[in-house]
Design goal:
The protein has 11 helices and no strands. It has helices at 2-19, 22-28, 33-36, 55-70, 80-86, 91-102, 116-125, 136-139, 159-170, 181-186, 191-200. Helix 1 (2-19) crosses helix 6 (91-102). The protein is globular and about 45 Å long. The termini are far apart. It is found in: Periplasm.
């Protein structure tokens, strides 16, 4: 019975976070501008575009950055820059920021023609011989992911950022993925495949 109460309490708390306040989030996002841009569309390729991302996903990442700080890196998502940003955030702050950035339109991006031959088969079908699941199974045909399942939108994202994350997953430098799904896929990809996939998702929208 106590476990059920705890589960329902956590669900209720998570729902409250997910709602957020867009106007409050806009004010709190002032410190995010330097890396993520005035409108959530990072111009510097190594940083992610936050505009249009699922609010729940953004909340989870912020919570994971903070968890990495409080657990000395044993849990969560370690990042030197984001550690300082997330450490002082409350659950309400995270929800507000998630609501704000998810309300913004993501800027346009394209898929270079020269990466399609390598990336499209992997994205759509995976590689059964190597045990690589198709990216489309979680991120969808247009790269929009699903909020309820916790899969992020990757369409339109900066290629350099995607490449850095796939490399981090490959070497388990990033390990906050559900059931190690990204790590199990990325570890089987070579450098050319990671580079191609990173560029390919830009134009899926």
């Amino acid at each position: 019975m106590k476990k059920l109460v705890l589960i329902f309490t956590l669900m209720a708390s998570y729902s409250a976070w997910a709602q957020g306040d867009i106007d409050a989030g806009k004010l709190k996002a002032a410190t995010c501008v330097a890396c993520h841009g005035n409108d959530g569309n990072a111009i510097i390729g190594q940083y992610p575009k936050l505009a249009g991302q699922h609010a729940d996903y953004l909340v989870k990442q912020l919570a994971d950055y903070k968890l990495a700080v409080t657990s000395s890196g044993a849990q969560g998502r370690s990042n030197a820059i984001m550690a300082g940003m997330a450490a002082a955030l409350s659950a309400t702050d995270m929800a507000d920021l998630g609501a704000y950035f998810s309300s913004l339109p993501i800027s346009g991006n394209t898929t270079p023609e020269n990466v399609i031959a390598i990336a499209e088969p992997l994205y759509r079908f995976g590689d059964s011989d190597r045990g690589i699941a198709a990216c489309i199974s979680c991120h969808g045909p247009r790269g929009n992911g699903t909020s309820l399942s916790g899969f992020p939108k990757i369409s339109g994202q900066n290629a350099q950022y995607i490449q850095l994350q796939l490399q981090a997953f490959r070497f388990s430098a990033r390990n906050n993925d559900l059931n190690a799904m990204m790590r199990s896929a990325a570890v089987k990809l070579n450098d050319n495949e990671i580079e191609a996939l990173s560029a390919y998702v830009g134009g899926l929208h």
